[in-house]
Amino acid sequence: MANFYNCNRCPAYCCSYPRIPVQDEDVRRLAKHLGLSPETVARKFTKKGDEPGEVILRHQPDETYGSICKFLDLETRGCTVYEARPGICREYPGTCRCGYYDFLSFERRVQEDPEFIPSTFNQPGK
User: Are 117 and 39 spatial neighbours (Cβ–Cβ below 8 Å)?
Assistant: First the structure.
């Protein structure tokens, strides 16, 4: 199935989701990739989520979306652990289309600006 989006043209919107759940296997994969113990990765990069038993990735401050995944490079907007990224990131968006990419492409055409990024965090008064 062909994908109708290009993640390299997106400012990493999906990485701004407040809850990016991870499983034990994700923590182990990240630990191996980073050369750290699973316990260290869990302590440094995850926290308890809102749902019982849920573990989510920690965030860092971000000028575009307010906060974003701790593993996102804020300059390149690329994932620093792409090869070892969590399963949910590997599966996203779960279809051949990404709704945000469709929205972003539309806005860039309408604004006549190929780099346009809609964000309430960059608007005056917000």
Answer: no
Q: Does a structural domain hold residue 19?
A: yes
Structural domain total, the chain = 1
Report if residue 126 sits inside a domain: no
- Each of the 126 residues of the chain gets a pLDDT tens digit; together they read 677 777 888 889 999 999 999 999 999 999 999 999 999 999 999 999 999 999 999 999 999 899 999 999 999 999 999 999 999 999 988 888 888 888 888 888 998 998 888 765 544 444
Q: Do the domain assignments include residue 1?
A: no
DSSP 54-87: -EEE-EEEETTTEEEETTB-TTT--BTTGGG--H
- Asked whether residue 2 is domain-assigned, the answer is no
- The range of the structural domain enclosing residue 76 comes to 7-121
